[in-house]
Amino acid sequence: MNYTISEIAVIIKAEDYKFPEKEVSVILTDSRSLTFPEETLFFALVTERNNAHRYIYDLYRKGVRHFVISDNIANKDKMPDANFLKVPDTLAALQQLATAHRNRFDIPVIGVTGSNGKTIVKEWLYQLLHEDYNMVRSPRSYNSQIGVPLSIWQMNESTELAVIEAGISQPGEMDKLEAIIKPTVGIITNIGGAHQEGFASMQEKSLEKLTLFKDSDCIIYNGDSALISDTVEKMCLGTREIAWSYKDKNGPLYIIKVTKEDENTRIRYSYLQYEGEFAIPFVGDAAVENAIHCLAVMLYLGKGPNEITKKMAKLEPVAMRLEVKEGRNNCLVINDTYNSDINSLEIALDFQVRRATAGMRRTLILSDILQSGMLPATLYRKVSQILMHKGVDRLIGIGPEISACEKSFGMDAEFYLTTDSFLNSGAAERFNNELILIKGSRDFHFEQISEALELKQHETILEVNLDALIDNFNFYRQKLKPETKIICMVKAFGYGAGSYEVAKSLQDRGCDYLAVAVADEGAELRKAGITMPIMVMNPEMNSFRTLFGYSLEPEIYSFKLLKAFSKEAEQLGIMHYPVHIKIDSGMHRLGFTFEDMPLLVNELSAMPSIRARSVFSHFAGSDETRFDDFSLRQIAIFKDCARIIQNVTPFPVMRHILNTAGISRFTDEQMEGVRLGLGLYGISPIGNEPGLRNVSTLKTTILQIKELDADQTVGYSRKGVLSRKSRIAALPIGYADGVDRHLGNGKGYVIINGRQAPYVGNICMDVCMVDVTDIDCQEGDKVEIFGDQLSVCVLAKWLDTIPYEILTSVSSRVKRVYYRE
Ligand SMILES: *Cc1c(COP(=O)(O)O)cnc(C)c1O
């Protein structure tokens, strides 16, 4: 929902602001999650760990114009059109805004709190109810003083039911969350653990949690818990209660019998005057407790016993994403650098148990677990118990807290204060035949560890000049208007150059967007720390979780994809996920045609889970003058389609059609953005463009030199027939590295010491031979296959192909080496 700046200023009592009529719809607190700069209101939060005022200028350069601040701002003079709403406390302002937003809705809001199971209850309620209601729920486990306001902010005109999680770690916090959530129905899952941070007693903790429900119409809890029942009584909430019980036959919800079978649990209950029974596909005690809470909600909402039975049978585990990679020294690496809390640790360890094969030791690399709400001593004692329970062989603990609790772990364990100290210790070299689970809070950047542990091989190298890349970026940049966005194509492993390094250099130079071909390429970039927006050109139907998990924005080119993607977004409770609409203006590869527009805009306007961030099209022949009429027609069709989409979209939709050749030849059609590919890598698709610089050079060295007589032959099938006494050099590179076999037998040459050395005989898989009879050279000398001295365009001509194919054919076993001048 949109708010004007003046509306917000009144709510948060801000001073000093300009542009009161401007509108925003997105709230941002984590600068790395920026997606819609124009519509974003950034809250510069100040925490013990961080002061987000420092990101303001960077966000400004990325297009954000509205900021809620509490401190003075550096560089203020460089941001003349920025809007600063000054308040005494930015977190309090965020909460005030969320509170005002919540008060606009008169719908059921379910608040979930308790020590364990909150997220699962919330997710299960979603699974059980989303077909009946337009629902909003807290993303992941956004349950904190910051997470709750962001969860509430998702509510909009069409929301019919909200499920919001609330977590606290200190006295006084729940009051604030209560004001924001104002739950009409409350669930308290349980109160566990010993004394927690800041709470004097279990009673105090229980009281504090229950304040969430002081104005609720109904509260749901385990009536057999004396602690919770007593607290409810003491608070005299005077609301309806569904205190479920295994003992109280006369209570509102009596659990008659729980029967565990191999893979199911059957639960028989009586509610008001009838009995019912259902089964869930889980057997754990925690699952039963969670399911009963969900049952109570369904009963409260008036669902009948048959419907309950049907839906409960279909409950699914709450999703987790883990990947396994090959590591060095016969290791396997399971990467879960996404989050770390105690629940997800257990799940990840279960996964590790399942992946383990006989004889493989199981190792866990674990960071401090942040924001657990427990005292470190208690927390790590618990972690230690879990590790024993799951049979972990070895622990590597990283972080000050876990290191301080070293003594809690009675197992083979080592500790490091920081990720860097672990990496510098050489410990990463010593793993052998282990199944390594890497689990860390984001702040610990454990992706560096997984990178260090991954398997890499090297022989011949592809040298990549990152300065040349930046020069090429600037070469095209200066052809364009300053406000035109540049989308850099790093698909196909950055045209062979290596997508991460290329992306990193571009990110540092103010490129606006990246585009990759498939979701995994984007995921790799995210894992490596690339934070700028990333488009995925060919999203596979089974990659949606990867897209959401790593904030990757898909290209949508068909109705089928559109429906499947928006449905998945909806199921995950996501709103306004950015997508890019592909128009087929004449290429006839992928995309919506002009005729598709009426149906497309209809569908789009009925899909709140996604939103068109941009619309684009691709040329069939922008590099050739003979197709210019066709290209101009493509532009006209594209503009018509874009106009239709923009007309039904209440925010600006970026348009882009120019590729590299287009930028040089149809500069006036740059619209709001362009997609730069080949040119970035130093190759002009339209012939010579002075100013471009070569980026990638494929290099090897001479392995061995042989003197051969005129009657000898070289290589397979005796193809390399010599006509004179020759010196033949063998090079450690073959077609498996990406040297096209058709270059053999004199079709092409390599460069050695500035001279041309033709290929002799057939190119082998890992080796090839060249004639160096006339060249002054020796074993170990450098050889250029293509690059600075021999353009890929020349190879492309020999092979009757295009430079793109040559660049992207360099195989992944060739090590990429990056340098700056
Ligand atoms: C690859 C690609 C580009 C870039 O093309 P270049 O000719 O390398 O500039 C642009 N748009 C789309 C859709 C592409 O697939």
UniProtKB/TrEMBL annotation:
Enzyme Commission (EC) number: 5.1.1.1
UniProt KW keywords: ATP-binding, Cell cycle, Cell division, Cell shape, Cell wall biogenesis/degradation, Cytoplasm, Isomerase, Ligase, Nucleotide-binding, Peptidoglycan synthesis, Pyridoxal phosphate
Reaction(s) the record says it catalyses: L-alanine = D-alanine
Lineage, highest ranks first: Bacteria, Pseudomonadati, Bacteroidota, Bacteroidia, Bacteroidales
Domain (Alanine racemase C-terminal) ranges: 695-819
Binding-site positions, substrate: 589, 765
Residues found modified as N6-(pyridoxal phosphate)lysine: 491
Stored Pfam families: Ala_racemase_C, Ala_racemase_N, Mur_ligase_M
UniProt-recorded name of the protein: Alanine racemase
